[in-house]
Please model this.
Amino acid sequence: MFYWEIDHVNCKKKRILFLTHGSNTGSEHTLFNLINNLDKTYYEVILLTRYTEYFIHNTVLADFKYSIEGILTNRDIVKKIRDRLFYHKNDCFPFNEYLTNIIKIHKPDLIYVNSLTLPAYFDCLIANKIPVIFHGHSLKNYLDEFPVGLLIKRIKTADLFISVSESQKQAVLMIALPGLIKVLNPAINLKELTPDHEMKIKTRLEHLIPVDAFVWSMASVYFNENKSPVRFIELAYQIIQNDNRPVYFQWIGGNLDDPLCRKAMDLAISLNIDSKIHFTGFVSRSQYLKLLNATDAFLLVSIEESFSIVSAEAIALGKPVLSSDCKGIREFITKFNGVIVPGNAMDQLASAAIEMMQSISYYDSEVMFDSVKHLDISIIGKVWESILSANFGH
Model:
């Protein structure tokens, strides 16, 4: 374990280099919230992320901000489609070189890697002998996309591994032993999660969502076998076939050109339910919040979740969550804010969805809001900083 000595007399700050490299997901929004709440009296923040636009759409209180978008597009390593970067060469060297230069310039005391799925070589992290923290986030996505051997290497590299839930912690410990492991639930910002009925109606009218329909939402920037749009359509069909009330389904986020998304839309057309289905494509944070507020209940179709930030945000907005038993979600779903269906059988999920629609008045928005108060950034931020302090500093 590394321990920092902070010079309180000269108030010498400890430098943390944060690395995040996703697609403006919940994990990144959580990181930005944590950074903004970090006591800058003791810490200097250097942030390296993927998109320059993050600094336009998000307020991030970092002392130094870097984006790899420019260097990678200039070197023809990636192409940009619908404002998102897509690799078309298997070459991480420019990123590794860029990261190494940032380390040389700033000489950080700690490197904080916000995602296991960061597509870069970590030789420069190990060679510099700088303490490394890995923040776990979606373990399922990693196991789907990367070799287990690389996962083990990254876990063992960590001086501290921050797990987003107890269930993820147990999964990590089955794979490899990090230097130290702590559980920290993702933070949500309750100040931006206030139910607004007038805005709900306005948003529905703006997006041509039927005002009188019961609206189910799913949200993810990814389409994959875990967060499957095809399963979303199949479940929607089951619900529509077994209930006569007006109903509407929207998937917030994601690349509309993704093959799985196209397959799901084709399925909706073949089942003649496409008029009740909408995939929004990529949206801004403000649009995401408006669309989530415009829904009636949240339909989490994931097979496995390390946590589920969007489900917690939906609950804060007064939207009950229906989910299969995808592990991490057990840690905050109660009978007062949602339903967890054992297994992943489509007929059981559909039956539970119909029952939830029938009993929607049972769910009290104030009770639901209170049920996720412990996840607010004002609380999680303090716990996070205490973890940093206890293991690496002041």
In short: The longest helix spans residues 377-392. The chain has a mean pLDDT of 84.
